[in-house]
Design brief:
This protein is of the alpha+beta class. Helices cover 27% and strands 15% of the residues. It has a domain at 36-91. The protein is elongated and about 65 Å long.
């Protein structure tokens, strides 16, 4: 018999193992919030996301939009300024 031919012993019972597996990897049980969108300006390592005006550079927060249409409207305004590539991307909190 070679290395890895026997399964490792379980430290937890089979039901607990399966429940944990489902909780971690099951897409059925995944809790997903509403989709948000952000605006990315530039490309490569020179790109950045539009941030909210928090009044502090130390507390930058990415501006997110509830709908793709709203984000696209703002992105079009930014595009018209000629700053370079601008794209709307899905944002995960």
């Amino acid at each position: 018999m070679g290395k890895g031919s026997k399964p490792r012993p379980f430290d937890v019972d089979r039901d607990t193992y399966e429940d944990n597996w489902d909780r971690i990897f099951s897409k059925r049980n995944a809790v997903v919030g509403p989709t948000k969108y952000a605006i990315k300006v530039g490309s490569g390592e020179n790109s950045y996301y539009i941030t909210e005006d928090t009044g502090s550079c130390a507390e930058l927060v990415t501006e997110t939009y509830a709908s793709h249409e709203e984000a696209e409207t703002i992105a079009n305004i930014i595009r018209s300024s000629g700053v370079g590539p601008v794209e709307v991307v899905k944002w995960l909190d």
